[in-house]
Amino acid sequence: MKRVAILISGSGSNMVSLVESMVGDYPARPALVLSNVPGAGGLAKADALGVETAVVDHRDFPKDREAFENALISRIDAVEPDIICLAGFMRILTPVFLSHYAGRMLNIHPSLLPKYKGLNTHARAIEAGDTEAGCSVHEVTAELDGGPILGQARVPIEPGDTPDTLAARILPMEHRLYPLVLARFATGDRTPVELP
Ligand code: GAR
Asked: How much is the pTM?
């Protein structure tokens, strides 16, 4: 059974979906939910689900990303996780953190990578006139949003879509995709998951 640390910055809906999946025969269990934002909505949800929580506030380490990451690493490693899942964790990570968890860290990103790395993915897909959008789970490497893709889910972009309506169509797909990819990854299977 793999132990999973989940890193969040916000509402934590993907974290909830992961935690709720980790029951029964599922090959992993949640060990920690950590946020860089004190009071992030996801912390109370993790608490209600009975998962240990922690906060490492990046603002306590002004202009010192490496000190922030070393604090993150020591708090995460205290629970001895096998896998790290970034789930709406909105900090850019340096090689200090990336190399420490190389080969065992996943991220979910709200675009069909390699398109639209970075922010404002839905607005960019609509502006480009794309007819489909979606989300990707990928292994985290040194290249921002650039590691091997382990799963994708696609949705149509409808006439009149706004970034909000498109996000509302994609988020439920994120909630389905991430647990499927994590289950495979936890058993050592990196075959990409394709949804629907
Ligand atoms: C999700 O849509 C996730 O794909 C996105 O943030 C949202 C977090 O929502 N992640 C990124 O943009 C990463 N660059 P949640 O906190 O409700 O899971």
From this structure: 0.98
Report residue 53's pLDDT band, with 50, 70 and 90 as the boundaries.
Answer: very high
The DSSP string of the chain is -EEEEEEESS--HHHHHHHHH-STT-SEEEEEEEESSTT-HHHHHHHHTT--EEE--GGGSTT-HHHHHHHHHHHHHTT--SEEEESS------HHHHHHTTTSEEEEESS-TTSS-SS-HHHHHHHTT-SEEEEEEEE--SSTT-SPEEEEEEEEPPTT--HHHHHHHHHHHHHHHHHHHHHHHHTT--PPEEE-
* Total domain count, the chain: 2
Model confidence at 194, in pLDDT bands (50, 70, 90)? very high
Q: List the domain range (segments joined by +) for residue 175.
A: 108-196
Whether 73 and 161 map to the same domain: the answer is no
Please identify which of the residues 58, 100, 109, 175 carries the catalytic annotation: 109
Looking at the structure, tell me whether residues 21 and 47 fall in a common domain: yes
Report, as an integer, the average pLDDT of 168-192: 98
Which ligand 1 atom is the nearest neighbour of the CA of 14? 18
Nearest CA residue ID for atom 5, ligand 1:
88
- 21 lies in the same domain as 48: yes
Is the CB of 11 within 6 Å of ligand 1? yes
Q: Report CA(101)–ligand 1 centroid distance (Å).
A: 20
**Percent of the chain at pLDDT above 70?**
100
User: Annotated catalytic, 109?
Assistant: yes
Q: Pocket of ligand 1, candidates 34, 91, 109, 170: which has the most ligand atoms within 8 Å of its Cβ, to mutate?
A: 109
My answer on whether 117 and 151 are in the same domain is yes
